[in-house]
Design brief:
Elements lengths: L1 E5 L7 H13 L5 E5 L5 H13 L3 H22 L4 H19 L7 H9 L1 H16 L4 E3 L19 H15 L5 E5 L2 E3 L5 E3 L5 H12 L3 E6 L20 E3 H9 L10 H5 L5 E5 L8 E4 L9 E15 L7 H13 L6 E4 L3 E7 L2 H11 L3 E15 L3 H8 L4 E6 L3 E6 L1
Parallel strand pairs: 1-2, 1-7, 2-4, 3-4, 7-9, 8-10
Antiparallel strand pairs: 5-6, 9-10, 11-13, 11-14, 12-13, 14-16, 15-16
Helix pairs in contact: 2-3, 2-5, 3-4, 3-6, 4-6
This protein binds aspartic acid and magnesium ion.
Magnesium ion binds next to loops.
Amino acid sequence: MKIFKFGGASVSSVERILNLGHIMKHWDNEKIVVIVSAMGKTTNALEKVVDAFTANKQEEAIQLFNQIKQQHLSTAKYVLVTHYLACEKQLKDFFTEVEWLLYDTPVREYDYYYDQIVCAGELFSTSIISAFLNEIGIQNKWIDVRDIIRTNDDFRNAEIDWNFTKQNVDKIVTPYFNNYKIVLTQGFIGATDENESTTLGREGSDYTAAVFANLLDAESVTIWKDVVSVMNADPKQFAKAIPIAELNYKETLEMAYYGAQVIHPKTIKPLQNKSIPLIVKCFIDPTLPGTEIHNKTLKKLPPIIVLKENQVLLKVTTKDFSFVGDHEVRRLYELFEGLHLKPNLTQIGAISFICVLDFWPEKIEKLALKASEFLNVELTKELSLLTIRHYTKEIFEELTSEKTILIRQQTMDTIQVLLK
Ligand code: ASP
Ligand code: MG
C-alpha cells in the first residue's frame, strides 16, 4: 500500500486537477490512500471568514463564504459531467454545516470556530477530486477523515489519539481495500470524541499522510509538490540551487529546524518509527526522480543553505550592568512563549543576551516594551540569517563576501551568520 498526498497547489486549478487524474491513472494497479489538502488558497480564505464571524461581522463572513462556495461549485462544474449532481449535493451538505454555524452568534473561543469553519476546505476539495476520479474511471472510496482521526480538543493544534485512530483505520479503512484500490480523504483535519472538528496545525496534511502510512504500514509516502524535488536552497533566493536526490529523516528535520520550508516537521517521526520512505515528487513532471527521504546514513550531502530574511536582532543588558542571569533569561523566554515567538538564534554573553527573531511588527513591539521593564533593550531590524549546513570555506565566502557579519555561530557541520 502507498500513501499519496496532494497539496493545495496541486489542485488549485482545473488544469491541475486534470493533471492529478493523469498521475493517478499511471498508478492504477496499486492500493493507495490519497490525502488531499484544500484547493489553492482556500484555507486562507476560510480564515478570513472566521475572522469576520468572530468579530461579529456576520454579513461579511457570509459574503466571504459565498465566494468560496461559488469557486468550488464552478470548479466542480468544469471537471464533472455525470457526477456533477451527486458532488453538488455533497458540497451543499458541507456548505450547510458551516452556514448553520455562521447564522449563529459566536459564544465560544476563536480557536474552536476556526476549526469548525476552516476544516471545510479539505471536505470541499476531496468531494470534487473524488467525484472527478470516478468520472474518469478511477473508482475510489471517499471518506470523512473525521470518522478516522480522533484528536483531543486542543483546537488549531490538535493532538492525535493514536490508539483510537489505529482502531478506526483497522475497522473502517482497511476493509475498503477489499472493494477499492483507492481510498481518498482529507489531510489536516480530525475530530474529538464529541464530534467537534479539529485541525492539526497549518500545512498539516503532510502529517496526516504520515499518520496513515504509520498505521497502515505503508511501503512509502509520496508528497506531490510543485517543485522538481527538495533543493539545497530556495531557488527563488539562489539561482544556483541544485536538487537533492536523497536525504535522511535527521537531515530533513535539521533543515526544517533552521527554517527550510521542505516538509511539515511533525511528518517525520511517524515515518521514521517504521522506516517508511518519504518521496517528494513533482506533479508537473512526474518523470523527474524527485527526492527520497529515508532512514539510512548519507555519506555526502551538498551544502544546504537556508536564508531567513526580515530578521530582527534583540539585544538586552541588565539595567545595572550586572551579569545577565538565569532569572532574566527565564523571564524573557516567558515573554517569547506568551507571544508565540521562537528565537532563531541566541547567544549569552557576560552582560548581554542576544537573540534573533522573525520580525512580526506588533509582537516585537510588545516584546520590547515588556522586556524594557526589567532590561535595557536594543533592536536592530532588516537583517537576514544565513544558515549553511555542510559548509565549505568557498561557499561561505561566496555567500557572505559583500555583507557585514553581525553574529557568527559555528559547529562542526553548521554555520550561522546574521547579516546586514
Ligand atoms: N489546507 C491546510 C493549510 O493550508 C493544510 C495543508 O495544506 O497541509 O494549511
Ligand atoms: Mg497546503
